[in-house]
């Protein structure tokens, strides 16, 4: 069965399978976004951050230290297994497993499933991938595990929804998947808990059309391997390509999708559509990761990129929305070498839009704001709501408060992200390297749709920014459809829980940002 | 109500303000398991400092969102020992905080080091003026630690707080700026000073013209974006004026919440329990060793948390209260003049003077920060006290912290009605054209000013309330009047059209009904003599050596400067000696009396 060797080229629209699940929903806010992005969100996996001294340190013999175990695992593993667990935990971070396979409610058991993907035809809940034999994947053999990850096929032969980014994971090496398997089986606490049942409506609940989808759009492991092993200018670029195209599954969000929700390019080999920006995911628009000077990463240096992936914050902008989750759960845990490799690889991608001109600062808006007179509605709203942190120059106080001037996500042709963040705000969680959380408040209760549109338009066209205006209708539509802010997006801990314990819970969850 | 005993931990830290957060961070770094207990709830800048909804004067400064609810626990107050104390039922004179961050969340951010003189005030006074200069009944004492010893810890605290200021000398080398009375520093401030607001600028000019030595007040309000040694990030202050009583939405005002908690909560060996009101420290049968604490949780359960080391780091008077309730050390008795817990309770001697500038000068009082301009010419012993016969001093400053609408409307002008068009005219004039100059002075300790357990009133937890016996004394009244007397030259140089001097009046007792300051000090002070101090120079209880009591309770007398900088430095100092000495020893006293 797995000997299919379809060339993974973007098929013409007419080849889209008839069971095309999104059907007429495809063009709206991005079922794709929901479907794949959600997936792509992030996940993570954290190495234990602090090695607590397990010996009693108190001078009082009656009070032994009770350090919290770095990972609540089963029997102590032998050193070889322990090495694999450590490596597998790292692979899980690179592949961002936890974000999707952990329910969003604070305190949810890591990897026990339950993250909801709201699709037009029902809700899909991520599965429990802890080693519990009944509710998790404890009974899976390594071969079954590998096949599910690379090919999207469950042990019973049915297909996974391609919310699971197996077309990207197909590239993952045997060694990485072996380590990941060992980690899941021996480094993760089994949780005997069934995730909520999917509420996918018939006929979308049928799994066999997914098999057709797989045949059409997912690369075979052999093809994926061949692509991953193509020639690169340096081993570092090869590593960067592997991480970005494989476990990192960046394209799941940042590459546009076709009629059947398939990514229109899976690697840099597939041409300029790869990572040239995707449709909104959870109403956040993934920008281009290619070299466009305004709307892509053309102006970002390698150091900007590594800082962004490490901490979610740079002088050029901060992560928010679904990308924030990817940093929070995944990229922050990668090594400097790997982040540098990813950054260098991304910097090799030429702009998809070769005509885009570099952003150039224009002080007219700053002068108007500073003058304080004859202001437009957008300018007044900006002064009253935004300028305290983002300043009249739009420069912000990076990296605490990101710049709006020259920021690629502000200039994205699609206004989704900017409307979304004005309405609901966003939280940048603390990371190991940058432990502070920053939250931009939402303004949904304070601004009308017309005000949000005027404000967004001002921001998108001030200081040299040149994105299209935002109309009221777009705001109205988004206000209606936006899900309430996810608990993942809030630093508030469960108010019922009056204890915050530091460190990575179960070695998986980054700690809370509650103060 | 149920009772429960938890598994032992290495350390219990009572309180989550600056002192508790610093101690918890240091002891987590040392590898100890640390449980921090906070009597009230969790805080979050995202929620408590949301912009712009957190800029709510009614919620913050009138309904006291970040403060303790006196219906839960409060103190009783009286002026003299022959009076019956009554509960402080409505917050006014001082505002103890509640919730994670404690006073460190609601403070303004004025961040001074203590002066070398203040830390050894008794020795200094005796050396310069002789023993007879100390009035009868004044318990003038040294801290038992010198500026030189604390200097690295002042420096550490400033770097953690992201403090903005201008050094006078660094490593003995003059910078050409700063406070000429300031002691030498090993390093400059981590951030340049905040800019002078207009009124501070006027004060700077006028003070210099009057022959004094103005300087930019050190403020733990970041003048630029800043990342501290823990990796915690701050935004820059934008002078919005919502510092005191509020969580700073710019993440610019240093707080345990912004500057320490982000790093602290990442320690696996750290646990924070909120809504955990500590009732007492438990001692073993010898009374010489603490075995843990018992606290009441939100459901009313009594939980015992055993621990090998107990750090009391609650607000000043809560620390004293817990020591008294737990029997740590001997309670002070002013009659027999024995005991130390409750002794040397002090306050701060603040009076505010208002100047009205000509109508052409708009004072823009809505702007505010913890910065400002001060002179130290009348602080400490920076002037010859010989002819005046009092001890202590007072900096003078314009520390414009932002006058909000309700406060602006409540401001009164002498001789003007409090309603009607005359009021309206005066209120507008005062808001637009006046500003305040503060004299924030020292307050000495006296034999009959102290803290003890109230014989009558009990808290909602069924425990005796803490009783304050406090009044202003002649020494401090004369000090204040002397300093205010020197304001005239500055006011003249300002070109003010009117002035109202605020100064202490002879025979006018301490009055809890108007806000003065939350800078309460002493009651469990540090020192070198167990007969006059509850704590040794490392803030360790003389009597129960696995209890350290960290906070302004350790100050033997109240100084002119704000206390937080010294509280933070003492916390780092104490933690350093716990880490380097106490943990390596047998858990006994670090100082042998």
From TrEMBL, chain B:
Domain of life: Bacteria
Native organism taxonomy: Bacteria, Pseudomonadati, Pseudomonadota, Alphaproteobacteria, Acetobacterales
Keyword Oxidoreductase: yes
FAD-binding domain span: 9-44
InterPro entries: FAD-bd (IPR002938), FAD/NAD-bd_sf (IPR036188), GMC_OxRdtase_N (IPR000172), GMC_OxRtase_C (IPR007867)
Glucose-methanol-choline oxidoreductase N-terminal domain boundaries: 228-346
Domain Glucose-methanol-choline oxidoreductase C-terminal: 458-571
Family per record: Belongs to the GMC oxidoreductase family.
Entry protein name: GMC family oxidoreductase
Species this protein is from: Acetobacter farinalis
Keywords: FAD, Flavoprotein, Oxidoreductase
